[in-house]
Amino acid sequence: MERLENEVMSGSPTDPTELLEIGRGIFALILFSLSLYAWSRRRQPALIMMAAAFLLFFMKTFVDYVLPSPTEDFVRVGIDFAALALFFVAIVVRPRQDPSKGTT
């Protein structure tokens, strides 16, 4: 029983929380790719900001698993703050008007 508790506490690869965190990183990378593709087709500034925010969420997973450090909590909170700020700016930014298109 004690061995099982130690395994759960150490963050084993089969721990559901660990799997969700890894899934979050993979999903963020997929959303980053899709956002970049959408930006390449439409050239809206909001899409590049969304892509950057998704990249930050991927980087957060990367920091958790590849670069553990004593300042990890500060970095994680900073990444969350920056991603939320990018999402807010992406929502508030008005799309550019194309002068070649007439208004009808």
Describe what this molecule looks like in 3D.
It is a single chain. The chain is mainly α. It has one domain (18-92). Helices cover 75% and strands 0% of the residues. The radius of gyration is 19 Å and the shape is elongated. The model is unreliable at 1-9 (pLDDT under 50).
Give a nutshell description of this structure.
The chain has 104 residues and is mainly alpha-helical.
* Structural class assignment: mainly alpha
Helix percent band: over 70%
Terminal Cα separation, in Å? 72 Å
Mean pLDDT: 81
Extract low-pLDDT stretches. 1-9
Number of strands: 0
Proportion of beta-strand residues: under 5%
Give the total of domains: 1
Q: What characterizes the major β-sheet? A: none
Q: What's the alpha carbon Rg, rounded to whole Å?
A: 19 Å
Number of helices: 4
Order of helices and strands: HHHH
Shape: elongated
Key terms for this structure?
104 residues, mainly alpha, 4 helices, 75% helix, elongated, disordered N terminus
Topology diagram in text:
Blueprint: H1 2-9, H2 16-42, H3 45-66, H4 72-92
Helix pairs in contact: 2-3, 3-4
